[in-house]
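Now produce a polypeptide, keeping tokens residue-aligned:
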Amino acid sequence: MRKLIVLCLTALAFLVPAGALAAGNVVPGSGSDVSLKNEVEHAIGKGLSWMAGKQAAAGYWSQAEYPALTALVLTSFQGDPSGYYKKKHQAGIAKGYDFLLSNAQPDGGIYAKGLANYNTSISMMALVMANRPEYEAAIRRGRGYLVRLQDKRDDHLDGGIGYGGSYKNSDIINTAFALEALHYTRYLNKDVGSDAEDLDWKRAVRFLSRTQNLPGYNDQKWVSGDPENRGGFIYFPGDSKAGEGKTEEGKVALRSYGSGSYAGLLSYIYAQMDKNDPRVKEAFAWLTRNYTLEENPGMGREGLYYYYHTMAKCLSIYGVDTLTLKDGSKVNWRRDLAKRLLDLQHGDGYWVNPSGRWWEKDPVLVTSYAVMTLEILYRGL
């Protein structure tokens, strides 16, 4: 019973932005948001209904080879604020979970074709959100698998986690997925008499620091402290998806970008770093300076819905309602992001990105991101 209570609490912490895990404060509601909140709930329902109609007879969504896609849909249903669609489609949801567990491997991972960390981490979060004690064994095995994926080697990638399998490079996005799953299952390491493995969190933080453009904390030669990049994150030490730029001194700089920087700040939070740590403060400062909903900063429309989803998780957990931008203006990011997603929803209830980078032409993937984002926003409006 104690384990079930803890599991419930971690599930709530994942979706409900009741203040920052790092800050410990509570986000107040606002009566002026009632109308928008109703619109958001309606959009969530349309999205869930659309996804329910796209489930394959075998129980999966989109591609059987990648159970993470099914896991994202299941997590979307678990966050249904009305509970109506979750109840209405409970048979399909149960079938989806059966499919998810059918991909559990002897090594503890939850994957099929590849991208083992990506699939395992996201599948674990769907199992956590289900809040069912019979899933705990699979979650525990998955946790051990992720711990064993951590890079432990004498180079710049030490401490991170990559896709797994033949993809050897650790990166900020995969590390963030793994740290999220490990953070929300840390209670499994605290059982009396437990001999469960745990991640080397100090090593992970060192990898994160090596992925952040912040001199004095990043020991890599390429690190840039110029105003355009300072505090933000790149893809992995030595490589940025946003490419290269020039500092004011003419030095080549690896450009910080939006989704990677939100993933980096989230990872610091999952590693339980203090909110006053300079690395945390500088990451938040970069994100505030580069706040926009028009694009994924540095990437255009590429990865836009992952960017929205990671933004909503990060700012909710960080515990901030209003952002003060570099021109001094203030924005209510929840209202702005909610309205943006309402405008982007198609009439049938789905979302899709015209840019196919990172699979975002897949409407199942993108609709899952959008619905989960709206569910986070709903609880903060």
Observations:
- The beta strands are 162-164, 167-170, 244-246, 252-254, 322-324, 330-332.
- Residues 115 and 163 are 5 Å apart (CA to CA).
